[in-house]
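Hey L., structure's done. Input below.
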Amino acid sequence: MACRLSMVPRIAQRFGVHTRPHVVRLGAHLARRFGIFCLVVAALALLGSAPREVTLPVASFSGSWGADEAQGIVTSPAAPPGATVHTPDSSSIGRLAISFSATLPERLLAAAPHWLGRASVGVALVWLAPLLRTFAEGDPFAPGNGGRLRGIAGAAFVVTHVVPLLTPLTVALALHRLGASGWAPDWGFPVHTSLVFVLLLVLLAGALDVGRRLQVDSEGLV
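Output:
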């Protein structure tokens, strides 16, 4: 058993990326630089406030539909008080865009997809850099790699499942504030196949934790 456990670092070194460490180190360096760049861009997007007049998509409504083809302004049902509803194009029956004067929380929430997505990608890349460096050194089971991979999985979940919901959430809050009836935000598909990728990252993080425990046990027995 001790002999079998002591082979874990060698197997990781032989079948890992240790044969081309310079390529992986370069990838780690680029990931860290690009991650910092994404964080800076996200910070700038966060500092730049959204305009008071916000235009967001609306999915559907109850009642009859009609529009002035020349102006693209919805005439039936009536637009919510304090808002204007537009048709983005001639084929978007039932999929419209609403323009309204937003409150400060609505403005921040409307701008969140622009900075939160970039911030999540930046954090994931910053965490990826030390993970790649340990792989380049032939030690994929280094301390903290499981936690880093779980962090990357969390950032991927935010990008794929949280960010797409922020825009319809803003629309829902605005419609409730304006007292609009019959209008609904475009929620899309909250859960999709990218969740499988997130779950695979979580499982791989667990495998790295198990590998780390086996590596520590083997070092103690030799």
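DSSP finds six helices and six strands in the chain. Helices lie at 2-6, 8-15, 21-47, 104-136, 145-178, 194-221.

-- N.
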